[in-house]
UniProtKB/TrEMBL annotation:
Keywords: Calcium, Glycoprotein, Hydrolase, Metal-binding, Metalloprotease, Protease, Signal, Zinc, Zymogen. Ca(2+) 1 binds at E248. This is Peptidase metallopeptidase domain-containing protein. Ca(2+) 3 binds at D225, G226, D245, E248. A motif (Cysteine switch) lies at residues 113-144. Zn(2+) 1 binds at H218, D220, H233, H243. PROSITE patterns: CYSTEINE_SWITCH. SUPFAM superfamilies: Metalloproteases ('zincins'), catalytic domain, PGBD-like.
Length: 311
């Protein structure tokens, strides 16, 4: 672009601000989150490659790997038997080729943004691969369920069907007047298919559920990791905690590089009610969630899950 030397200082300033403002160029964010796993593609048992210890941390974070008695291999870069077994279980859960090696398909799955709740909790071997349910009658169907529950199937007491929530954040990322209707709509999705009703209460009041934005280590057992990794997390009944990662790029109408507030809220509320992750990619309770993706409606697997837990 040619700019005349006679242009006024004000005009030059305006042009400069336009050329370099975030809205003038849609640039791809720097690689962060789980992108560190990319350079491990092709790694397999017997290899010793810098960064394998980060793969171990990733699989431990999401429940696949547990080194007992502080094994010497827990923090090194050796791709050992235990790591291979963990990779196989991960591949089985996400319907990938069960090779035990870090092939491109497995890496591409692992680097996607996701919920911070582990897939495997307290030693459960894996997520459901799909249990056939037979329905008899004029329209006999064979349906497959992929929903799961937390270990021990914690749930809200039978007489606790009205749950209250309040907003408490360590940093304001989204104005409350924007966040409030988003969360209300998300709760309404679950209210429509369960016995629960939900209502907001004021910050100073007692509540069953707390919702807010937090960054990095924030006083619970699951620290956030900055942008493009873990998006949010929630705890099982009756803990009642749901946190968004404040470092993500949140939106109510996301572009390619933003995350949809409402879609993530619907997912995390499922955890608050007692659902674990689903092996069904279309389900709300599927653990991975893409930037720019809008996924706000419960699927049959989600509905069957909540209704089975509270039948």
């Amino acid at each position: 672009m040619m700019i005349s030397s006679r242009a006024s200082p004000l005009l030059l300033l305006v042009l400069f601000m336009f050329m370099f403002s975030p809205s003038s160029v849609l640039s791809k964010p720097n690689e962060q989150g789980f992108e560190f796993l990319k350079h491990l593609e092709g790694c397999h048992k017997g290899k010793n490659l810098k960064g394998v210890h980060e793969l171990k941390q990733y699989l431990e974070k999401f429940g696949y790997l547990h080194y007992k008695n502080h094994s010497a291999h827990a923090n090194d870069d050796e791709f050992d038997d235990l790591l291979e077994s963990a990779v196989k279980t991960y591949q089985l859960n996400y319907h990938l080729n069960v090779s035990g090696s870090l092939d491109s398909q497995t890496v591409n799955q692992m680097i996607k943004p996701r919920c911070g709740v582990p897939d495997i909790i307290n030693g459960t071997t894996r997520m459901p691969s799909g249990k056939k349910k037979h329905q008899h009658g004029p329209l006999s169907l064979h349906t497959v369920s992929h929903f799961s529950f937390f270990d021990g199937e914690p749930r809200w007491p039978a007489d606790k069907t009205h749950l209250t929530y309040k907003f408490i954040s360590s940093v304001e990322v989204v104005p409350l007047q924007t966040l409030r209707p988003v969360i209300s709509r998300a709760f309404a999705k679950w209210e429509a298919v369960s016995q629960f009703t939900f209502a907001e209460v004021q910050p100073g009041s007692n509540s069953d559920i707390e919702i807010g934005f937090y960054s990095g280590p924030h006083g619970d057992t699951r620290s956030f990791d900055g942008p493009r990794g873990v998006l949010a997390h929630a705890y099982q009944p009756t803990i009642g905690v749901f946190h968004y990662d404040a470092d993500e790029n949140w939106s109510i109408n996301p572009n390619t590089y933003q995350v949809d507030l409402e879609s993530v809220a619907v997912h995390e509320i499922g955890h608050l009610l007692g659902l674990g992750h689903s092996g069904e990619p279309n389900a709300i309770m599927y653990s991975y969630f893409g930037r720019g993706q809008v996924k706000r409606d419960l699927q049959q697997d989600d509905i069957e899950g909540i209704q089975t837990l509270y039948k």
